[in-house]
Design a protein that fits this description.
Blueprint: E1 14-21, H1 24-41, H2 62-71, H3 74-93, E2 97-104, H4 113-135, E3 142-144, H5 148-163, E4 178-180, H6 186-208, H7 221-235, E5 238-240, E6 246-248, E7 250-254
Helix pairs in contact: 1-3, 2-3, 2-6, 3-7, 4-5, 6-7
Length: 266
Amino acid sequence: MPASPSSRGNDQPVLVIGGLIVDANRLETLTQEFLNLKSRWFPGLPYPSNRHLDKIIPEAKGAGLRRNAMRGSRNQRRHAIGFLDHLVQILQHHRVRLVARVWVKPLGKPFDGRPVYTSSIQALYSYFENFLISQNTFGFCIADSRDYLKNVNVAHSIFTQKYQLTSATYGHILELPTFGHSENHAGLQMCDLVCSALLYPIAAEAYCTGFVANVHVQPNAAALRQRFGQSLKAMQHRFQEPSGRWVGGIVVSDAHAQRSSALMFR
């Protein structure tokens, strides 16, 4: 199908909202290994001092890595993919689990991001709750801060579900999402890298090729899918509902052709 006129701009054709589930006992070691990885692969970042822990503040952003991996020079591509290789290895070593909602936007129709974001966070919370139940433990969520009103709205949606008198939910999640600044949280930085540098370009190429013709749909992302698809698949937290339906993990809503999330991993 040829790309429609409305898809020829540089509007983002995909929205990815994801989360990483980290064992609290592994968080300190995971953070230290991430700082070592970032400082080794990005020595030119504007670190405020030579102190090791100050290396958390400047970020290697996923959008920049995505650009280098998709459209950079040969050396930029090798550098971006090499860093992502090591990041995924660290996440696998620490048994980090991945959940995400991927929205492939419809062509020529409005896409209201606020209810989509809210429903996505609710879905990720339900996946996280199932993980905690399966591990017989408790947890909490740190979300990347956006702006005050957006934070309040999404937190209130979780509040009403958690504390409603009938069918209260999220019993193993201790509180509402706390909103942090990514400059202070290794987990938020790693989640941005996974979502922006891996899930986003893979989804854009897999689901939008032939529908959208703009800078976000890059043929080179097929190589990312081949290289990282099986690792991402293995990192998912998926589970069966009593009905037998599989839920969780990376869930894709494809407005173009209603294809399943399996396309992310092929």
